[in-house]
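Ticket #347: bound-state structure for flavin-adenine dinucleotide.
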Amino acid sequence: MLMRGLKRNHSGTYHPIILHPVRISEMHVVSSTSDGLVIGAACCLAQLRDILMKAVTELPAEKTKTYRALLQHLRTLAGEQIRSMASLGGHIVSRGSSWDLNPILSVGKSVLNLASEDGERQILLNDRFLAGCEPADINAKEVIVSVLIPYSMKDDFISAFRQAERQKNALSIVNSGMRVLFRPATDTIVDLSILFGGIGSTTLSARKSCEKLIGRQWNDQMLNEACKLVLEEIVLPPSASGGKVEYRRTLLVSFLFRFYLEVLHGLHQMYPFRYAELSQEKMSALGMLQSGVPQGVQIYQGTDALLVFKVLCRSGCPDTAETGNTAFSNERAQQNLVKLPGGPQYK
Ligand SMILES: Cc1cc2nc3c(=O)[nH]c(=O)nc-3n(C[C@H](O)[C@H](O)[C@H](O)COP(=O)(O)OP(=O)(O)OC[C@H]3O[C@@H](n4cnc5c(N)ncnc54)[C@H](O)[C@@H]3O)c2cc1C
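RESOLUTION: The complex was predicted; output attached.
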Protein backbone atom coordinates (compact mmCIF):
# COMPACT_ATOMS: atom_id res chain seq x y z
CA MET A 1 0.00 0.00 0.00
CA LEU A 2 1.37 3.34 -0.97
CA MET A 3 0.69 6.06 1.55
CA ARG A 4 1.23 9.68 0.76
CA GLY A 5 -0.93 11.60 3.10
CA LEU A 6 -4.32 12.91 2.14
CA LYS A 7 -6.26 9.66 2.64
CA ARG A 8 -4.10 8.36 5.43
CA ASN A 9 -6.46 8.99 8.31
CA HIS A 10 -9.74 8.16 6.64
CA SER A 11 -9.66 4.36 6.95
CA GLY A 12 -8.67 2.50 10.05
CA THR A 13 -7.11 -0.23 7.89
CA TYR A 14 -3.77 -1.73 8.93
CA HIS A 15 -1.23 -1.61 6.11
CA PRO A 16 1.64 -4.10 6.66
CA ILE A 17 3.90 -2.39 4.11
CA ILE A 18 4.05 1.34 3.67
CA LEU A 19 6.06 2.76 0.79
CA HIS A 20 7.31 6.31 1.03
CA PRO A 21 7.76 7.52 -2.56
CA VAL A 22 10.23 10.24 -1.54
CA ARG A 23 12.82 7.49 -1.01
CA ILE A 24 12.14 5.69 -4.30
CA SER A 25 14.13 7.53 -6.94
CA GLU A 26 12.49 5.71 -9.90
CA MET A 27 9.22 7.31 -8.88
CA HIS A 28 10.66 10.82 -9.31
CA VAL A 29 12.68 10.43 -12.48
CA VAL A 30 11.63 12.17 -15.67
CA SER A 31 12.98 10.81 -18.93
CA SER A 32 12.39 11.46 -22.57
CA THR A 33 11.92 8.52 -24.94
CA SER A 34 11.14 8.34 -28.65
CA ASP A 35 7.45 7.85 -27.73
CA GLY A 36 7.04 10.61 -25.17
CA LEU A 37 7.88 11.77 -21.67
CA VAL A 38 8.04 9.22 -18.84
CA ILE A 39 7.21 10.92 -15.58
CA GLY A 40 7.74 9.43 -12.12
CA ALA A 41 4.39 8.76 -10.45
CA ALA A 42 5.49 10.45 -7.22
CA CYS A 43 6.02 13.80 -8.96
CA CYS A 44 3.52 16.28 -7.60
CA LEU A 45 1.16 18.11 -9.94
CA ALA A 46 3.13 21.36 -9.59
CA GLN A 47 6.28 19.52 -10.76
CA LEU A 48 4.32 17.95 -13.59
CA ARG A 49 3.22 21.43 -14.66
CA ASP A 50 6.83 22.69 -14.66
CA ILE A 51 8.08 19.63 -16.60
CA LEU A 52 5.39 20.05 -19.26
CA MET A 53 5.94 23.80 -19.52
CA LYS A 54 9.61 23.15 -20.26
CA ALA A 55 8.75 20.43 -22.79
CA VAL A 56 6.33 22.72 -24.58
CA THR A 57 9.00 25.36 -25.07
CA GLU A 58 11.63 22.86 -26.26
CA LEU A 59 9.70 20.45 -28.49
CA PRO A 60 7.95 21.02 -31.84
CA ALA A 61 4.34 22.17 -31.32
CA GLU A 62 2.85 19.14 -33.09
CA LYS A 63 4.37 16.82 -30.45
CA THR A 64 3.03 18.70 -27.43
CA LYS A 65 -0.74 18.87 -27.98
CA THR A 66 -1.50 16.53 -25.04
CA TYR A 67 0.96 18.47 -22.85
CA ARG A 68 -0.70 21.77 -23.71
CA ALA A 69 -4.13 20.33 -22.94
CA LEU A 70 -2.85 19.13 -19.54
CA LEU A 71 -1.26 22.51 -18.85
CA GLN A 72 -4.55 24.22 -19.43
CA HIS A 73 -5.82 22.57 -16.22
CA LEU A 74 -2.54 22.24 -14.33
CA ARG A 75 -2.29 26.02 -14.05
CA THR A 76 -5.64 26.33 -12.29
CA LEU A 77 -6.62 22.89 -10.91
CA ALA A 78 -7.51 23.11 -7.19
CA GLY A 79 -4.97 25.55 -5.64
CA GLU A 80 -1.18 25.69 -5.42
CA GLN A 81 -1.23 23.90 -2.03
CA ILE A 82 -3.08 20.90 -3.47
CA ARG A 83 -0.93 20.91 -6.61
CA SER A 84 2.20 20.83 -4.43
CA MET A 85 0.93 17.83 -2.43
CA ALA A 86 -1.09 15.68 -4.83
CA SER A 87 0.99 13.23 -6.85
CA LEU A 88 0.47 12.16 -10.45
CA GLY A 89 0.11 8.50 -9.29
CA GLY A 90 -2.35 9.40 -6.53
CA HIS A 91 -4.42 11.47 -8.94
CA ILE A 92 -4.60 8.61 -11.43
CA VAL A 93 -5.30 5.83 -8.91
CA SER A 94 -7.91 7.68 -6.86
CA ARG A 95 -9.93 8.28 -10.09
CA GLY A 96 -12.23 10.96 -8.71
CA SER A 97 -15.11 11.58 -11.07
CA SER A 98 -14.30 15.28 -11.30
CA TRP A 99 -10.50 14.95 -11.38
CA ASP A 100 -9.42 16.96 -14.37
CA LEU A 101 -6.29 15.24 -15.68
CA ASN A 102 -7.51 11.65 -16.15
CA PRO A 103 -9.71 12.33 -19.21
CA ILE A 104 -6.80 14.08 -20.95
CA LEU A 105 -4.25 11.44 -19.99
CA SER A 106 -6.65 8.84 -21.31
CA VAL A 107 -7.36 10.45 -24.69
CA GLY A 108 -3.60 11.06 -25.00
CA LYS A 109 -3.09 7.24 -24.76
CA SER A 110 -0.95 7.37 -21.61
CA VAL A 111 0.64 4.17 -20.36
CA LEU A 112 1.14 3.21 -16.71
CA ASN A 113 4.39 1.47 -15.81
CA LEU A 114 3.52 -0.82 -12.89
CA ALA A 115 5.70 -2.81 -10.50
CA SER A 116 5.02 -5.39 -7.82
CA GLU A 117 6.76 -8.36 -6.19
CA ASP A 118 5.65 -10.37 -9.24
CA GLY A 119 7.47 -8.13 -11.71
CA GLU A 120 6.77 -5.22 -14.00
CA ARG A 121 4.10 -4.61 -16.63
CA GLN A 122 2.44 -1.81 -18.58
CA ILE A 123 -1.25 -1.03 -18.88
CA LEU A 124 -3.11 1.65 -20.80
CA LEU A 125 -4.67 4.48 -18.85
CA ASN A 126 -7.87 4.10 -20.84
CA ASP A 127 -11.59 4.35 -20.12
CA ARG A 128 -11.70 0.75 -18.87
CA PHE A 129 -8.94 1.46 -16.36
CA LEU A 130 -10.78 4.59 -15.23
CA ALA A 131 -13.98 2.59 -14.82
CA GLY A 132 -12.06 0.04 -12.69
CA CYS A 133 -12.84 -2.87 -15.04
CA GLU A 134 -11.03 -5.94 -13.71
CA PRO A 135 -8.58 -6.93 -16.48
CA ALA A 136 -7.69 -3.32 -17.30
CA ASP A 137 -7.18 -2.27 -13.67
CA ILE A 138 -4.14 -2.11 -11.41
CA ASN A 139 -3.82 -5.01 -8.93
CA ALA A 140 -3.89 -4.44 -5.19
CA LYS A 141 -0.16 -5.22 -4.83
CA GLU A 142 0.99 -3.03 -7.71
CA VAL A 143 2.26 0.51 -7.66
CA ILE A 144 2.49 2.94 -10.55
CA VAL A 145 6.19 3.67 -10.91
CA SER A 146 5.87 6.09 -13.80
CA VAL A 147 3.55 7.29 -16.53
CA LEU A 148 4.37 7.54 -20.23
CA ILE A 149 2.57 10.53 -21.73
CA PRO A 150 3.07 10.08 -25.49
CA TYR A 151 3.89 12.84 -27.95
CA SER A 152 1.00 13.86 -30.15
CA MET A 153 1.11 13.52 -33.93
CA LYS A 154 0.73 16.03 -36.73
CA ASP A 155 -2.87 15.13 -37.57
CA ASP A 156 -3.91 14.86 -33.92
CA PHE A 157 -6.17 17.40 -32.23
CA ILE A 158 -6.47 17.26 -28.45
CA SER A 159 -8.51 19.57 -26.25
CA ALA A 160 -9.42 19.87 -22.59
CA PHE A 161 -12.53 21.48 -21.14
CA ARG A 162 -13.71 22.21 -17.63
CA GLN A 163 -16.62 24.15 -16.23
CA ALA A 164 -16.49 25.08 -12.55
CA GLU A 165 -17.94 27.71 -10.29
CA ARG A 166 -14.57 29.45 -10.16
CA GLN A 167 -11.37 29.12 -12.16
CA LYS A 168 -9.40 27.96 -9.10
CA ASN A 169 -10.26 26.11 -5.90
CA ALA A 170 -13.45 24.63 -7.29
CA LEU A 171 -14.09 21.10 -8.50
CA SER A 172 -15.33 20.79 -12.06
CA ILE A 173 -19.05 20.54 -12.58
CA VAL A 174 -18.20 18.75 -15.81
CA ASN A 175 -14.82 18.28 -17.47
CA SER A 176 -13.72 16.59 -20.64
CA GLY A 177 -10.78 15.40 -22.70
CA MET A 178 -11.27 14.99 -26.46
CA ARG A 179 -8.99 13.78 -29.21
CA VAL A 180 -9.42 13.22 -32.91
CA LEU A 181 -6.85 11.81 -35.30
CA PHE A 182 -7.34 12.39 -39.02
CA ARG A 183 -6.02 10.51 -42.03
CA PRO A 184 -2.94 12.58 -42.99
CA ALA A 185 -3.81 15.87 -44.70
CA THR A 186 -7.59 15.15 -44.67
CA ASP A 187 -10.52 15.66 -42.29
CA THR A 188 -11.47 11.97 -42.27
CA ILE A 189 -11.66 10.62 -38.72
CA VAL A 190 -9.30 7.71 -38.05
CA ASP A 191 -9.56 7.71 -34.26
CA LEU A 192 -11.79 9.60 -31.85
CA SER A 193 -11.93 9.59 -28.03
CA ILE A 194 -14.26 11.61 -25.84
CA LEU A 195 -14.30 11.33 -22.04
CA PHE A 196 -16.31 13.26 -19.48
CA GLY A 197 -15.76 13.75 -15.76
CA GLY A 198 -18.29 14.97 -13.22
CA ILE A 199 -21.17 13.02 -14.74
CA GLY A 200 -21.07 9.60 -13.10
CA SER A 201 -19.22 8.04 -10.19
CA THR A 202 -16.10 7.85 -12.35
CA THR A 203 -14.83 9.32 -15.62
CA LEU A 204 -17.14 8.21 -18.46
CA SER A 205 -16.26 7.48 -22.05
CA ALA A 206 -18.45 7.98 -25.13
CA ARG A 207 -16.68 4.98 -26.65
CA LYS A 208 -19.58 3.65 -28.75
CA SER A 209 -20.39 7.08 -30.19
CA CYS A 210 -16.75 7.56 -31.15
CA GLU A 211 -16.58 4.17 -32.85
CA LYS A 212 -19.65 5.04 -34.96
CA LEU A 213 -18.04 8.29 -36.13
CA ILE A 214 -14.82 6.75 -37.42
CA GLY A 215 -14.52 7.25 -41.18
CA ARG A 216 -16.75 10.35 -41.14
CA GLN A 217 -15.64 13.80 -42.24
CA TRP A 218 -15.37 16.68 -39.83
CA ASN A 219 -18.42 18.73 -40.83
CA ASP A 220 -21.77 19.97 -39.48
CA GLN A 221 -23.56 16.66 -40.20
CA MET A 222 -20.94 14.82 -38.19
CA LEU A 223 -21.35 17.31 -35.33
CA ASN A 224 -25.15 16.87 -35.26
CA GLU A 225 -24.80 13.12 -35.21
CA ALA A 226 -22.06 13.27 -32.54
CA CYS A 227 -24.25 15.39 -30.22
CA LYS A 228 -27.16 12.97 -30.62
CA LEU A 229 -25.01 9.90 -30.02
CA VAL A 230 -23.20 11.35 -27.01
CA LEU A 231 -26.45 12.42 -25.32
CA GLU A 232 -27.79 8.89 -25.81
CA GLU A 233 -24.63 7.23 -24.49
CA ILE A 234 -23.73 9.50 -21.58
CA VAL A 235 -26.89 9.12 -19.55
CA LEU A 236 -27.65 11.52 -16.76
CA PRO A 237 -30.93 10.53 -15.06
CA PRO A 238 -33.11 13.31 -13.60
CA SER A 239 -32.27 12.06 -10.09
CA ALA A 240 -28.48 12.03 -10.70
CA SER A 241 -26.44 12.94 -7.65
CA GLY A 242 -25.03 16.44 -7.79
CA GLY A 243 -28.20 17.81 -9.46
CA LYS A 244 -27.90 20.46 -12.19
CA VAL A 245 -28.90 17.72 -14.65
CA GLU A 246 -30.01 19.97 -17.53
CA TYR A 247 -26.99 22.19 -17.08
CA ARG A 248 -24.60 19.25 -17.13
CA ARG A 249 -26.28 17.79 -20.22
CA THR A 250 -25.92 21.15 -21.91
CA LEU A 251 -22.23 21.18 -21.03
CA LEU A 252 -21.69 17.84 -22.78
CA VAL A 253 -22.92 19.35 -26.02
CA SER A 254 -21.23 22.71 -25.47
CA PHE A 255 -17.83 21.08 -25.01
CA LEU A 256 -18.41 19.01 -28.13
CA PHE A 257 -19.34 22.10 -30.14
CA ARG A 258 -16.30 23.95 -28.91
CA PHE A 259 -14.05 21.01 -29.79
CA TYR A 260 -15.61 20.94 -33.24
CA LEU A 261 -14.76 24.62 -33.75
CA GLU A 262 -11.24 24.27 -32.33
CA VAL A 263 -10.52 21.43 -34.75
CA LEU A 264 -11.95 23.34 -37.73
CA HIS A 265 -9.77 26.28 -36.79
CA GLY A 266 -6.74 23.99 -36.46
CA LEU A 267 -7.43 22.38 -39.84
CA HIS A 268 -7.55 25.81 -41.47
CA GLN A 269 -4.25 26.78 -39.86
CA MET A 270 -2.59 23.59 -41.07
CA TYR A 271 -4.11 23.50 -44.55
CA PRO A 272 -5.33 27.04 -45.32
CA PHE A 273 -6.06 26.31 -48.98
CA ARG A 274 -8.19 23.26 -48.24
CA TYR A 275 -10.20 24.29 -45.17
CA ALA A 276 -12.01 27.61 -44.84
CA GLU A 277 -11.41 30.07 -42.05
CA LEU A 278 -14.03 30.24 -39.28
CA SER A 279 -16.45 33.17 -39.33
CA GLN A 280 -15.86 35.96 -36.78
CA GLU A 281 -18.92 34.80 -34.84
CA LYS A 282 -17.59 31.25 -34.50
CA MET A 283 -14.10 32.50 -33.69
CA SER A 284 -15.56 34.44 -30.77
CA ALA A 285 -16.62 31.12 -29.22
CA LEU A 286 -12.96 30.11 -29.01
CA GLY A 287 -11.91 32.98 -26.72
CA MET A 288 -9.91 31.77 -23.73
CA LEU A 289 -10.56 32.91 -20.17
CA GLN A 290 -7.50 34.69 -18.86
CA SER A 291 -6.43 33.94 -15.31
CA GLY A 292 -4.88 37.04 -13.75
CA VAL A 293 -3.92 38.05 -10.22
CA PRO A 294 -7.15 38.97 -8.45
CA GLN A 295 -7.15 42.47 -6.98
CA GLY A 296 -9.61 44.29 -4.79
CA VAL A 297 -10.01 47.53 -2.95
CA GLN A 298 -11.71 48.03 0.40
CA ILE A 299 -12.56 51.39 1.83
CA TYR A 300 -12.73 51.79 5.63
CA GLN A 301 -13.90 54.80 7.59
CA GLY A 302 -11.21 55.08 10.32
CA THR A 303 -11.44 57.23 13.43
CA ASP A 304 -9.00 59.85 12.25
CA ALA A 305 -8.33 58.93 8.67
CA LEU A 306 -9.87 57.40 5.61
CA LEU A 307 -7.70 54.49 4.56
CA VAL A 308 -7.76 52.47 1.40
CA PHE A 309 -6.59 48.90 1.88
CA LYS A 310 -5.32 47.64 -1.41
CA VAL A 311 -5.16 43.86 -1.26
CA LEU A 312 -2.96 42.12 -3.73
CA CYS A 313 -3.34 38.42 -3.49
CA ARG A 314 -1.02 35.80 -4.97
CA SER A 315 -1.37 32.03 -5.44
CA GLY A 316 -3.11 30.09 -2.71
CA CYS A 317 -5.67 32.79 -2.23
CA PRO A 318 -9.23 31.96 -3.23
CA ASP A 319 -10.69 33.84 -6.17
CA THR A 320 -13.19 35.36 -3.79
CA ALA A 321 -10.32 37.43 -2.43
CA GLU A 322 -11.98 40.51 -3.85
CA THR A 323 -14.07 40.47 -0.67
CA GLY A 324 -10.84 40.84 1.31
CA ASN A 325 -12.06 38.59 4.14
CA THR A 326 -9.93 35.63 3.16
CA ALA A 327 -7.04 37.69 1.91
CA PHE A 328 -6.22 39.07 5.35
CA SER A 329 -5.77 35.62 6.82
CA ASN A 330 -3.57 34.47 3.94
CA GLU A 331 0.09 34.84 4.77
CA ARG A 332 0.99 35.34 1.12
CA ALA A 333 -1.29 38.29 0.71
CA GLN A 334 0.39 41.65 0.47
CA GLN A 335 -1.27 44.67 1.92
CA ASN A 336 -0.43 48.16 0.83
CA LEU A 337 -1.92 50.84 3.02
CA VAL A 338 -2.39 53.96 1.04
CA LYS A 339 -2.80 57.24 2.82
CA LEU A 340 -5.56 59.50 1.67
CA PRO A 341 -5.29 63.26 2.11
CA GLY A 342 -5.94 64.39 5.68
CA GLY A 343 -5.03 61.14 7.47
CA PRO A 344 -1.86 59.88 9.22
CA GLN A 345 0.98 58.26 7.25
CA TYR A 346 0.82 54.43 7.01
CA LYS A 347 3.03 52.03 5.12
C1 LIG B 1 -9.38 20.00 -1.51
C2 LIG B 1 -9.07 19.27 -2.79
C3 LIG B 1 -9.45 19.84 -3.99
C4 LIG B 1 -9.15 19.18 -5.18
N1 LIG B 1 -9.55 19.76 -6.35
C5 LIG B 1 -9.24 19.14 -7.51
C6 LIG B 1 -9.60 19.73 -8.76
O1 LIG B 1 -10.19 20.80 -8.84
N2 LIG B 1 -9.27 19.08 -9.88
C7 LIG B 1 -8.61 17.88 -9.86
O2 LIG B 1 -8.33 17.33 -10.90
N3 LIG B 1 -8.27 17.29 -8.70
C8 LIG B 1 -8.57 17.88 -7.53
N4 LIG B 1 -8.22 17.29 -6.35
C9 LIG B 1 -7.62 15.94 -6.38
C10 LIG B 1 -6.09 16.00 -6.38
O3 LIG B 1 -5.66 16.44 -7.66
C11 LIG B 1 -5.47 14.62 -6.10
O4 LIG B 1 -5.48 13.90 -7.27
C12 LIG B 1 -6.17 13.74 -5.10
O5 LIG B 1 -6.42 14.46 -3.93
C13 LIG B 1 -5.28 12.53 -4.77
O6 LIG B 1 -4.31 12.98 -3.84
P1 LIG B 1 -2.86 12.37 -3.70
O7 LIG B 1 -2.12 12.53 -4.96
O8 LIG B 1 -2.23 12.93 -2.48
O9 LIG B 1 -3.15 10.84 -3.55
P2 LIG B 1 -3.19 9.97 -2.23
O10 LIG B 1 -4.33 10.39 -1.39
O11 LIG B 1 -1.83 9.92 -1.64
O12 LIG B 1 -3.45 8.59 -2.93
C14 LIG B 1 -4.71 8.21 -3.39
C15 LIG B 1 -4.70 6.68 -3.49
O13 LIG B 1 -3.81 6.30 -4.52
C16 LIG B 1 -2.81 5.42 -4.00
N5 LIG B 1 -1.56 5.78 -4.69
C17 LIG B 1 -0.91 6.95 -4.67
N6 LIG B 1 0.16 6.91 -5.47
C18 LIG B 1 0.19 5.67 -6.01
C19 LIG B 1 1.06 4.99 -6.92
N7 LIG B 1 2.13 5.59 -7.43
N8 LIG B 1 0.78 3.71 -7.24
C20 LIG B 1 -0.28 3.07 -6.72
N9 LIG B 1 -1.15 3.64 -5.86
C21 LIG B 1 -0.91 4.94 -5.52
C22 LIG B 1 -2.75 5.69 -2.50
O14 LIG B 1 -2.30 4.55 -1.78
C23 LIG B 1 -4.22 5.99 -2.21
O15 LIG B 1 -4.95 4.80 -2.06
C24 LIG B 1 -8.49 17.92 -5.15
C25 LIG B 1 -8.11 17.36 -3.93
C26 LIG B 1 -8.40 18.01 -2.76
C27 LIG B 1 -7.97 17.38 -1.46
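RESOLUTION NOTES: Residues 155 and 185 are 7 Å apart (CA to CA).
TICKET STATUS: resolved
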